[in-house]
């Protein structure tokens, strides 16, 4: 079992037990099968980012609450300390996991050339702030398409479906901050 699988398994099981949820109830909340949730909790499945987003949204958690080891007062983060979440042609690096007292999470995302990643939307009234570090990122929100380069940034209400696209031949990297109200 990879380290990230272990972290997700522990976080999911802890959440379920703390909130006294059965696998059936959790399955209904997340639209993820009971069997898949059980496999994830046992560390027998490496869930996709899409599955993790379904779980996070259904349980009203941030993605990083599922994928990051709980730590006390983090003052310095080295990229070698981060457990990346990999899914097909997308990698997410959760630099600053969700903290209820701050109500945000921040992560770096990499998208391979010619690839895209869709999100069903985050929690109600959430906002996302994007800063492109390298390349030109295309984001579709509310039937509007935005091309953001390294000199630009974008803020949008992220509780609706949106898609991140790399329509170039170069790797794109960007930093995203999701604020939860």
Automatic annotation (TrEMBL):
GO cellular component, one term: cytosol
Pfam families in the cross-refs: Cupin_2, HTH_3
Protein name according to UniProt: Helix-turn-helix transcriptional regulator
GO molecular-function terms, A-Z: DNA binding; DNA-binding transcription factor activity
InterPro entries with a match to the protein in the record: Cro/C1-type_HTH, Cupin_2, Lambda_DNA-bd_dom_sf, RmlC-like_jellyroll, RmlC_Cupin_sf, TransReg_Diox_bact_type
CDD domains attached to this UniProt entry: cupin_XRE_C, HTH_XRE
Coiled-coil boundaries: none
Domain HTH cro/C1-type: 12-66
Keywords: DNA-binding, Transcription, Transcription regulation
Organism for this UniProt entry: Staphylococcus lloydii
Listed PROSITE patterns: HTH_CROC1
């Amino acid at each position: 079992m990879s380290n990230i699988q272990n972290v997700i398994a522990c976080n999911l099981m802890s959440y379920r037990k703390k909130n006294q949820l059965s696998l059936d109830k959790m399955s209904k909340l997340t639209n993820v099968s009971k069997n898949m949730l059980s496999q994830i909790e046992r560390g027998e499945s490496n869930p996709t980012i899409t599955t993790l987003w379904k779980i996070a949204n259904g349980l009203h958690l941030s993605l990083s609450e599922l994928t990051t080891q709980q730590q006390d007062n983090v003052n310095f983060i080295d990229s070698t300390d981060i457990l990346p979440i990999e899914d097909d042609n997308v990698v997410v690096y959760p630099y600053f996991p969700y903290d209820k007292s701050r109500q945000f999470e921040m992560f770096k995302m990499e998208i391979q050339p010619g690839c895209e990643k869709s999100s069903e939307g985050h929690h109600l009234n959430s906002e996302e702030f994007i800063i492109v570090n390298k390349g030109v990122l295309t984001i579709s929100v509310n039937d509007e398409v935005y091309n953001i380069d390294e000199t630009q940034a974008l803020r949008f209400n992220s509780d609706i479906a949106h898609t991140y696209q790399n329509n170039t031949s170069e790797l794109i990297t960007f930093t995203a901050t999701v604020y939860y109200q």
